[in-house]
Amino acid sequence: MALTKLNQLYRAVIVDHSKNPRRRGTLDNKTTQIEIKNPTCGDVIEIQLEIKDNKIKDIRFDGSGCTISLASASMMTDSVMGKTLEEALLLSEDFSSLVQGKDPEHEDDLGDAVMLSGVAKFPARIKCATLPWKALEKALTSEDQSGIDSQLKHDN
């Protein structure tokens, strides 16, 4: 019985992030942005970042997709806000481990994103959950983070 209530809580948090996403929109002072697509399902996520002094000063996302990808994007923005670029990349690795059914090193730092651990049971949904995190990784590891001219468009 307790497991059913926990699953209901997880679902409620995921639906809340999807219907009431945090940090959805555009940034006026973005220093980098990227858009990636999941060609198999049509999800599209754009990440905009304001990076200053090696930290994520602000982050926004926009796009279209399923409940899982939009909730994951919302949760990701909450998790990495204010983090250094290295910390954000580590969180992305931890999230990837989590949704593959592995134990992440810094699970507590993932915030609400831990609620997506159940995606591991549905391999087809792993790409949906990791799409925003992959966009973040690509944005943070692009060679030129100095301006918008370095906009990247990738197919995942």
UniProtKB/TrEMBL annotation:
Gene3D superfamilies: 3.90.1010.10. GO terms for molecular function: iron ion binding; iron-sulfur cluster binding. InterPro entries: NIF_FeS_clus_asmbl_NifU_N. Residues 10-128 form the NIF system FeS cluster assembly NifU N-terminal domain. GO terms for biological process: iron-sulfur cluster assembly. NCBIfam families: SUF_scaf_2. Belongs to the NifU family. PANTHER family: IRON-SULFUR CLUSTER ASSEMBLY ENZYME NIFU HOMOLOG. This is Nitrogen fixation protein NifU. It comes from Alkalibacterium gilvum.
